[in-house]
TrEMBL record, chain A:
Residues 301-313 have a biased composition (Basic and acidic residues). PANTHER family: ACETYL-COENZYME A CARBOXYLASE CARBOXYL TRANSFERASE SUBUNIT BETA, CHLOROPLASTIC (PTHR42995). GO terms for molecular function: acetyl-CoA carboxylase activity; ATP binding; carboxyl- or carbamoyltransferase activity; zinc ion binding. The keyword Transcription regulation does not apply. It is found in: Cytoplasm. It catalyses: N(6)-carboxybiotinyl-L-lysyl-[protein] + acetyl-CoA = N(6)-biotinyl-L-lysyl-[protein] + malonyl-CoA. It comes from Eiseniibacteriota bacterium. This is Acetyl-coenzyme A carboxylase carboxyl transferase subunit beta. Pfam families: Carboxyl_trans (PF01039), Zn_ribbon_ACC (PF17848).
From TrEMBL, chain B:
This is Acetyl-coenzyme A carboxylase carboxyl transferase subunit alpha. One of its GO terms (cellular component) is acetyl-CoA carboxylase complex. Pathway: Lipid metabolism; malonyl-CoA biosynthesis; malonyl-CoA from acetyl-CoA: step 1/1. It catalyses: N(6)-carboxybiotinyl-L-lysyl-[protein] + acetyl-CoA = N(6)-biotinyl-L-lysyl-[protein] + malonyl-CoA. PANTHER family: ACETYL-COENZYME A CARBOXYLASE CARBOXYL TRANSFERASE SUBUNIT ALPHA, ACETYL-COENZYME A CARBOXYLASE CARBOXYL TRANSFERASE SUBUNIT ALPHA, CHLOROPLASTIC. Component of the acetyl coenzyme A carboxylase (ACC) complex. First, biotin carboxylase catalyzes the carboxylation of biotin on its carrier protein (BCCP) and then the CO(2) group is transferred by the carboxyltransferase to acetyl-CoA to form malonyl-CoA. HAMAP family: AcetylCoA_CT_alpha. Residues 39-293 form the CoA carboxyltransferase C-terminal domain. Acetyl-CoA carboxylase is a heterohexamer composed of biotin carboxyl carrier protein (AccB), biotin carboxylase (AccC) and two subunits each of ACCase subunit alpha (AccA) and ACCase subunit beta (AccD). Its EC number is 2.1.3.15. InterPro entries: Acetyl_CoA_COase_a_su, ClpP/crotonase-like_dom_sf, COA_CT_C.
């Protein structure tokens, strides 16, 4: 909700250069150090001097988080419509077209399957460069389909958030995506399928107030702006100066809303370690005489790829201790996928 | 507040006052004014028809925010034989912007949770204008889970400009509190019915509305952002809120058309504040019917249908 305001009120800030530094030299926004771009790139776009995490695009996170060559994109063709025929200074449909052109993406999130440290995972990465990473119906749908895939395959979900919140141009439907994603996360939780939420700069509004805050484990990059309302709105409301470091990762950590602040270079290893612990815990219990079998089947779109694996999975074991009834929609072809 | 009328209401209210004065003045006397009264009544009818069948979206917003509009506790008073309010989130505080408790409607037990606005300045400071802090949402969830445990259906009333955007709210996890409600409401194995009675302000409204049935009063609104906030972003001018209300399509019939809600509850002509008890009766009728219908479903089916309902919301192409 606030992405647009921020962009417009800081017209002089070279967000482009922060998103895609492509010169030979670039300057750190935080410490003003002049950095050799190649070196910055090698350092995962983290300033070697002050540790400032430059904003990077979704495909970079895919690269950083997944084992080489294992990422298979899903539902790339799920894209926005214009339910409200929304128009301000620009038609919403044109705004989307421009974003597609600028980012090379179809929507503000890329989803897919991959391996992370050899573990099969379902991954979603939001991209702030696409209309402020705002949550449209198509974004909610792609996340929902990813979560259904997790339920079907008993594979963990990893979501990297970067968003200004709900996409205003889709009105109330964008708000409802908060509910759509959260109700499915209830199922993952009941099924003991891990969900790791990774928060990056910035994550605010309806995204923070739904799936981003619901991880079994929540990690954040250092210095990321994370909040419900944007700082400007709060400042206007309370009419006072905001505390030092307000709504930054470190502030949230201090107040108990993050598990860890994890530098970009350590994200993959940290997620991998956590998932392995969960995985071994769940499988240890299934060795105790209980078969490890999924009870869920969810209809998936024909665009979803075939399962990568049928053994490295998560989930409630048969006869588990009173978890909620699980998704029991009929399988489209009558077969049970594992 | 009791003298407050919106600009477009004034002509009707003035005419109605004239009619009732005339009636009072002539009652008991033998002055013959029947013809005049009939003429004025006819004029009032026509005027009401002209105004209330052509309300703009912004006028609906104004009605939804009307200082005389009935609030959650008013409806509870008219609808329930019994209401025992319960307080506190057991962690930080009791948030007066959300009221919750155990109740009976037509003898049947249930839990009720709703946003609560204040009627005057003093009350509004106490109720924070119906804008909850995280502890409000946590109180709501505590009562939801209590209801689930004791097999009580849950009725929620939505009426908030939005969750409060303040320093303390952020420190105590406004996002987490809202997000958790969205997730946990999917797990409540009892019928959940929501009525949006005034303002359905963004995530702060949705956090009480992940329900099996969501109804809106005819003149209530449901929106991702306030018209003022939207106008501020789009045109750098909060005064353009009426235009923003148009583009946001935030009325009850807009929501129904977009498949976001399950039904619309008619208000008395002129709005719920013109005849609050009639509005309460209409809500009660709808709510009782919904609970009746949902009560026939076994818990598993109920949860499955709730999930599918929210999974089906959204407009996209592929």
């Amino acid at each position: 909700m606030s992405w647009f305001r921020r962009q417009n009120n800081r017209p002089k800030k070279p967000t482009e250069s922060r998103d895609l530094p492509d010169g030979v030299w670039t300057k750190c926004e935080n410490c003003s150090e002049i950095l050799y771009f190649k070196e910055l790139e090698r350092n995962l776009h983290v300033c070697p001097k002050c540790g400032n995490h430059f904003r990077i695009r979704s495909h970079k996170y895919v690269e950083i988080l997944t084992d080489p060559g294992t990422f298979q994109e899903t539902n790339a063709n799920v894209v926005s419509k214009d339910p409200l025929k929304f128009k301000d200074s620009k038609k919403y449909t044109d705004r989307v077209k421009d974003a597609v052109k600028k980012t090379g993406m179809n929507e503000a999130i890329v989803t897919g399957t991959a391996r992370l440290d050899e573990l099969p995972v379902v991954l979603g990465v939001m991209d702030f460069a696409f209309i402020g990473g705002s949550m449209a119906s198509a974004v909610g749908e792609k996340i929902a389909r990813s979560l259904k895939l997790c339920l079907e395959r008993k594979e963990p979900m990893i979501l990297v958030s970067a968003s200004g919140g709900a996409r205003m141009m889709e009105g109330i439907l964008s708000l409802m995506q908060m509910a759509k994603t959260s109700v499915l996360l209830a199922r993952l939780r009941n099924e003991r399928i891990p969900y790791i939420s990774i928060l990056t700069h910035p994550t605010t509004g309806g995204v923070t107030a739904s799936f981003a805050s619901l991880g079994d484990v929540i990690l954040a990059e250092p210095g990321a702006l994370i909040g419900f309302a944007g700082p400007r709105v709060i400042k206007e409301t309370v009419a006072q100066e905001l505390p030092e470091g307000f709504q930054r990762s470190e502030f949230l950590m201090k107040h108990g809303f993050l598990d860890r602040i994890t530098p970009r270079s350590e994200l993959k290893q940290t997620v991998g370690n956590i998932l392995r612990v969960f995985h071994d815990g769940v499988n240890a219990s299934s060795h105790a005489g209980i078969a490890f079998r999924p009870r869920t089947s969810v209809p998936l779109s024909e665009h979803d790829p075939v399962p990568l694996s049928d053994h490295d999975s998560f989930g409630a074991s048969e006869g588990g201790n009173g978890s909620m009834p699980i998704l029991e929609l009929p399988d489209p072809d009558g077969s049970t996928t594992t | 507040m009791s003298n407050f009328w919106l600009e477009f209401e004034k002509p009707v209210v003035e005419l109605e006052t004239r009619i009732s004065e005339l009636r009072e003045f002539t009652s008991g006397s033998n002055i013959e004014v029947d013809e005049e009264l009939k003429r004025l009544e006819k004029k009032a009818d026509r005027m009401r028809h002209d105004i209330y069948t052509k309300l703009t979206r912004w006028q609906r917003v104004q009605l939804a925010r009307h200082p005389r509009r009935p609030y959650t506790l008013n409806y509870i008073g008219w609808m329930c034989e019994e209401f025992t309010e319960l307080h506190g989130d057991r962690a930080f505080a009791d948030d007066p912007a959300i009221v919750a408790g155990l109740a009976r409607i037509g003898g049947k037990p249930l839990a009720i949770v709703g946003h609560q606005k204040g009627r005057n300045t003093k009350e509004n400071i106490h109720r924070n204008f119906g804008m909850p802090h995280p502890e409000g949402y946590r109180k709501a969830l505590r009562i939801f889970e209590l209801a689930d445990r004791f097999r009580l259906p849950i009725l929620t009333f939505v009426d908030t400009p939005g969750a409060y955007p303040g320093v303390g709210a952020e420190e105590r996890g406004q996002s987490e509190a809202i997000a958790r409600n969205l997730r946990e409401m999917a797990n409540l194995a009892v019928p959940l019915v929501t009525v949006i009675i005034g303002e359905g302000g963004s995530g702060g409204a949705l956090a009480l509305a992940v329900s099996d049935r969501v109804y809106m009063l005819e003149n209530s609104v449901y929106s991702v952002i306030s018209p003022e906030g939207c106008a501020g972003i789009l045109w750098k001018d909060r005064a353009k809120a009426p235009e923003a209300a148009e583009v946001l399509k935030l009325t009850a019939s807009d929501s129904l058309e977009q498949g976001v809600i399950d039904g619309l509850i008619d208000e008395p002509v002129g709005g719920a504040h013109r005849n609050p008890e009639m509005a309460a009766a209409a809500i009660r009728l709808q709510v009782e019917a919904a609970f009746e219908e949902l009560g026939n479903l076994d818990p598993e089916t109920l949860l499955q249908k709730r999930l599918e309902k929210f999974l089906n919301i959204g407009v996209y192409q592929e």
